[in-house]
Design brief:
By secondary structure, the chain is of the alpha+beta class. Helices cover 16% and strands 37% of the residues. It has 2 domains: 236 residues, no CATH class; 133 residues, Metal Binding Protein, Guanine Nucleotide Exchange Factor, Chain A (Beta Complex). Strands 1, 2, 6, 7, 8, 19, 20, 23, 24, 25 and 26 form an 11-stranded mixed β-sheet that branches. A 7-stranded mixed β-sheet has the order 11-12-13-17-16-15-14, with no helix packed on it. Strands 3-4-5-22-21 form a 5-stranded mixed β-sheet, with no helix packed on it. Strand 15 and strand 16 form a beta hairpin. The two termini are 37 Å apart. Its EC number is 2.3.2.26.
Length: 400
């Protein structure tokens, strides 16, 4: 096991609804229970070991019951496990994703998330409507006694409409390509003319035509019809024209992807009571099976994720001899990569299960997500990294 796959010295998982949690101290922090001293306050936990010490900052309204920190158990390969009791008066609100935040009769600017370049100028949507569930065709077949009247028909936005999918929005392009966007076919047999901004492709739409940011060449979506764009919520940001562009959407790429997908699966599970997801590339191939376990977790880890986005320590000015960490709101998930032939029976079963919700994303974003999940798994104590055939991971949740 290399350094990039070593567990955190300090790991705390707290369940706010259950008002319980566990603290794991690796042998690098302390090898014997007698070496550990834990003190708690209204919004902090201070842990002292033989080799190191740290402060844990908890959200307002969350505290650890001191007597629960006394019983310790040694687990082979992990270190010391300590069960905790939690007092929680904190009601967390998840920040809405783009799908939940778009409203009619409001003005928006669309920008590339990677480079912040504005790709669609000020737009005011007269209607913002949700698309049917991804399995709606199958439901029509099950419930209707006559042939499906919607077979082979696309639901497309009219002018000044915005249609909301699970991981994308459909917008009417109207007047033609914007200068900040490029239409690029996936195959080389179609030439895109830079002089006309790709209007030839708009006249002859192809499902394989991708929408590319002219500035950074990131894939933002696809062309659905001659005047309709599909833009993925992991690739674009939307803001009001009056917002200060210097103070918005400044999250780094990895943290943005992590936040958006975590918040989105919470939204979908809340509205549709589904907890299993198939993350699919825009090529239709399944890349990750994702199972949401809970969304009420606070996590503290002294190991920085591979992206540097989550669980990153910050120096405590008041205690120079201590390291300081902040608890993060996260979702706990099980996941199974589909990129190999392993567990083909599970993948096939999920693909046939109507209760599994598909989340289409660009292929590169599926790969980014898999790296983030793998990095989270590698930071966990060894005994907590797997559950049955699935791997365990935590994703940071953007919240108020």
């Amino acid at each position: 096991m290399d350094d990039s796959d070593t567990q955190a010295e300090v790991f705390i998982e707290l369940r706010k609804r259950l008002q319980s949690g566990r603290l794991v101290l690796s042998s690098g922090f302390a090898e014997d229970p007698s070496e550990v001293d834990i003190s708690t306050g209204s919004s902090y936990v201070r842990i002292k070991g033989a080799k190191s010490c740290c402060n844990i900052d908890l959200p307002k309204g969350v505290s650890i019951t001191p007597p629960s920190c006394r019983e310790m158990q040694r687990v082979s390969g992990d270190g010391l496990h300590i069960r905790l009791q939690l007092q929680n008066d904190n009601d967390m609100e998840v920040l809405p994703t783009l799908i939940e935040s778009l409203k009619a009769q409001k003005s928006y600017l669309f920008a590339c998330q990677s480079c912040r370049e504005t790709i669609l100028m000020e737009r005011v949507f007269h209607r913002v409507l949700p698309l049917p569930n991804g399995n709606w065709n199958a439901l029509v077949d099950d419930w209707c006694c006559h042939p499906d009247p919607f077979a082979n028909r696309k639901l497309l936005p009219r002018k000044d409409d915005c249609l909301l999918g699970d991981t994308f929005v459909l917008v009417n392009w109207g007047t033609g390509p914007n200068e900040a966007l490029i239409l690029e076919p996936k195959t080389a047999d179609t030439d895109v003319s830079k002089e006309n901004g790709g209007k030839d492709l708009m006249q002859k739409p192809n499902k394989n035509v991708r929408v590319i940011c002219k500035c950074c060449r990131a894939m933002l979506g696809e062309v659905i019809s001659s005047d309709t764009l599909k833009l993925y919520i992991t690739e674009v940001t939307v803001k009001s024209p009056i917002e200060d562009s210097e103070n918005t959407n400044l999250l780094n790429r990895s943290l943005f992807v992590e936040n958006v997908i975590a918040c989105r699966i919470v939204e979908v599970s809340s509205s549709q009571s589904t907890f299993r997801f198939s993350v699919q590339g825009h090529d239709g191939k399944a890349y990750i099976l994702l199972w949401l376990l809970n969304a009420d977790t606070l996590l503290v880890s002294s190991k920085t994720s591979v992206s540097g986005s989550a669980f990153t320590p910050s120096e405590d000015i008041s205690y120079n001899e201590h390291k300081s960490y902040c608890a993060s709101n996260v979702v706990k998930v099980l996941y199974l990569p589909c990129v190999t032939s392993n567990h083909r029976d599970i993948v096939d079963a999920w693909e046939k299960d109507i209760g599994v919700h598909s989340l289409p994303l660009p292929v590169t974003t599926c790969q980014e997500l898999l790296l983030l999940l793998s990095a989270s798994t590698g930071s966990l104590p060894p005994s907590m990294r797997t559950m049955n055939t699935f791997q365990v991971a935590f994703m940071k949740l953007a919240s108020n």
